[in-house]
Write a structure and sequence with these properties.
three-stranded antiparallel beta sheet, Chemotaxis Receptor Methyltransferase Cher, domain 1, globular, alpha/beta, single chain, 540 residues, Rossmann fold
């Protein structure tokens, strides 16, 4: 950009009317949402794209975008200026671990005879994500060259796609530990930059695709019968109706049992309702829910009401245990699972712990031990072993237990298994036994939210924060419920309550009862939601 061009771009008047019409245009064409609090971002991008035109003012530039023979070219240039393309290799370790240790091996096993895999990175920016998947597959498949593998990377930003095709990256793209280690095998150094080796580069194809306007699934765009779709940190820039439309298209693009991976701040009980939800350590993934598909083992199937799994919050596991272990949905005052309990998927049937009437069991190392049955049930729930937990808890009820926590945990076990009516019944029984049982109110609120009984769900979550006004997860859950009702002012108030409870707490501190969420991760999620929901209040 020359000095004269830059001066012309900065001197052009950009008033409130310009903000309104350009924001409406970019939302209609690309789905990008620029509320009032992002007006400066929109203006910056418009001025940057305006500078590449020969227009003298914003009125002329707007007409150029609408009516000229070259409007498509200029719209793409504007979209490039408005979209963020910064990412890095193996971003979000929890999601990468879930793919590497669970999802991809399951798909590979199912496809072993056909030897075909199809993966789509939607919103791939400069290519780090699809190339990361290619490297994972090369690690998992010794005979990778004998497979027919499609890894498609799409983005609306043509400049980012050009960088992706070159596959040359700076040091900043290798922030994750896995990236630094694997760089030795898959990259060649060129001065202070790194070029991806050809064997990995040729596994990925790139194409421009507009998630709002283009047609998919489509054979023409090669977006049919996908085993995995990754669309991370893209839908946070869309309105909820547009996000819902995109997710519906993704569902149709997936093969039976296919998986959808979205960003940590993009989870929603309503938008992904047609999917089966799976919880891993620091990751929530969605699976197309078709009858008769093979289910991934050792997963719990019930999401919390908020994005409760964030990067880099997993408790450290012993060296002899896999680094990705399924975790059940968290509730207030949940007991942190001890690392001595192995996940069900890696324990032989002959060594599965057994709990008899006196609660003596044998662990995976053959050691005898004694455990409180309620603690044992909590451990089983933490590792997604809900059927076992349910069996144990029912034994306690049949033995005459009147402990409200037993009934609340039974509610959680049934909820994990998608047995909503039974879950609600056990939670209500727990509340009858103990009017101050936080777990029962919290679980019941989430169950009712899933059943779309929002008024009662809000009432239950209000009781959580009434009993314990310092319960940050209760305030955060209440905010999500208000948002589901479209009550954004109340939602923002609850978010502010949650944020104030985190004030003064160090970012690295783990929130009690959260299953490993750090203060910094939750604070970041709150800030993002405050910005997004504030815009909704203004627009209403």
């Amino acid at each position: 950009m020359t000095e004269d061009t830059a001066r012309r771009a900065q001197s052009a008047t950009f008033g409130y009317g310009d903000y309104l019409r350009f924001s409406r245009l970019i939302q209609e064409r690309y789905g990008l949402h620029f509320p009032e609090n992002r007006r400066a971002d929109l203006e910056r991008g418009v001025r940057q794209a305006f500078a590449a035109s020969t227009c003298t003012d914003m009125n002329e530039y707007y007409r150029l975008l609408l009516n000229s023979d070259n409007s498509a070219v200029h719209l793409v240039r504007l979209a490039n200026a408005l979209t963020i393309s910064e990412t890095h290799f193996f971003r979000d370790a929890g999601q990468i671990d879930a793919l590497y240790y669970h999802v991809l091996p399951q798909i590979i096993k199912r496809r072993r005879e056909l030897r075909t895999l199809r993966i789509w990175s939607a919103g791939c920016a400069s290519g780090e994500e699809p190339y990361s998947i290619a490297m994972l597959l090369r690690e998992l498949l010794p005979d990778v060259d004998e497979w027919t593998i499609t890894i498609l990377g799409t983005d609306v930003n043509t400049e980012a796609l050009n960088r992706a095709r070159k596959a040359i990256y700076s040091e900043w793209a290798f922030r994750e530990e896995r990236a630094k280690e694997w760089r030795k095998r898959y990259f060649r150094r060129q001065g202070n930059r790194y070029e991806l080796i050809e064997d990995v580069k040729r596994m990925v194809t790139f194409d421009q695709l507009n998630l709002v306007e283009d047609v998919y699934p489509s054979y023409e765009s090669n977006t049919t019968l996908m085993d995995v779709i990754l669309c991370r940190n893209v839908m946070i820039y869309f309105t909820e109706p547009i996000s819902r439309q995109i997710v519906e298209h993704f569902y149709d693009c997936l093969t039976q049992g296919g998986w959808l991976v979205v960003g940590h701040a993009e989870h929603s009980l309503s938008i992904y309702r047609q999917f089966r939800t799976h919880n891993f350590t620091n990751a929530i993934l969605y699976q197309r829910d078709d009858t008769g598909i093979e289910k991934c083992p050792s997963l719990s199937a019930w999401p919390p009401a908020f994005p409760s799994f964030f990067p880099d919050t997993a408790p450290k596991q012993p060296a002899d245990m896999p680094s990705s272990i399924p975790v059940a949905p968290t509730t207030p005052q949940a007991v942190t699972a001890p690392t001595s309990l192995p996940p069900q998927s890696v324990v032989e049937a002959s060594t599965q712990p057994e709990i008899e009437g006196d609660h003596v069991y044998i662990d995976a190392l053959g050691r005898l031990g004694h455990v409180d049955p309620i603690e044992r049930a909590q451990e089983l729930l933490c590792y997604g072993r809900s059927e076992e937990a349910k069996t144990l808890l029912v034994k306690l009820v049949n033995a005459g237990s009147k402990d409200a926590q037993v009934y609340a945990l039974l509610g959680q076990a049934h909820a994990n298994l998608g047995e909503w009516d039974q879950a609600a019944r056990w939670c209500r029984q727990a509340i009858r036994l103990d009017k101050l049982n936080l777990d029962a109110y919290y679980i019941l609120a989430l169950v009712l939210q899933h059943q779309e009984a929002l008024d009662e769900a809000i009432d239950m979550m209000k009781r959580v924060v009434y009993i314990d006004r310092h319960n940050v997860l209760g305030h955060f859950g209440l905010a999500d419920l208000y948002r589901s009702r479209g009550q954004f002012a109340q939602a923002l108030k609850s978010l502010d309550n949650a944020r104030r409870l985190l004030d003064g707490c160090p970012d690295e501190e783990v929130i009690a009862g959260s299953g490993g969420i750090t203060v910094g991760s939750l604070r970041e999620a709150i800030i993002h939601q405050q910005q997004k929901w504030s815009a909704e209040v203004v627009e209403r």
